[in-house]
């Protein structure tokens, strides 16, 4: 065996193996690596888009929360104003009702005072007639002296 022939035969086998590898093994391997690199790049891009979407969603959520908070504060303020108006209106109505009740009570009191005065005048006139009767020692006719008694009532 000749060493040159062995080296030449090994060289030919190596070239055939290299050509076979370049023709049949290398392209699918490179395609698989390219696809894998593309999937990784797509995944990274999707992750970046997800982060951007998350940041945008957080901004929208905080904006909605701020809007809701402002609207809630506005409604609370309106409710407080409305409550104060209702209280003021109730106070006004109550004071008007109290004034009306007081006016009615005063009118009733005036009527009762007037009635009491009239009753008192009648009683005083009756007592005056009885007193005059006893003084005169004779009976005084109330019907006959009605005009005189009316004048006496008005004077009292």
UniProtKB/TrEMBL annotation:
Residues passing through the membrane, by range: 6-26
An example Gene Ontology CC term for this record: plasma membrane
Keyword annotations from UniProtKB, A to Z: ATP synthesis, Cell membrane, CF(0), Hydrogen ion transport, Ion transport, Membrane, Transmembrane, Transmembrane helix, Transport
Any Pfam family matching the protein: ATP-synt_B
Localization terms from the record: Cell membrane; Endomembrane system
Membrane topology: Single-pass membrane protein
A molecular function (GO) term: proton-transporting ATPase activity, rotational mechanism
Highest taxon listed in the record's lineage: Bacteria
SUBUNIT field: F-type ATPases have 2 components, F(1) - the catalytic core - and F(0) - the membrane proton channel. F(1) has five subunits: alpha(3), beta(3), gamma(1), delta(1), epsilon(1). F(0) has three main subunits: a(1), b(2) and c(10-14). The alpha and beta chains form an alternating ring which encloses part of the gamma chain. F(1) is attached to F(0) by a central stalk formed by the gamma and epsilon chains, while a peripheral stalk is formed by the delta and b chains.
Biological role: Component of the F(0) channel, it forms part of the peripheral stalk, linking F(1) to F(0). The b'-subunit is a diverged and duplicated form of b found in plants and photosynthetic bacteria.
Family per record: Belongs to the ATPase B chain family.
Name the record gives this protein: ATP synthase subunit b
Organism annotation: Glaciimonas soli
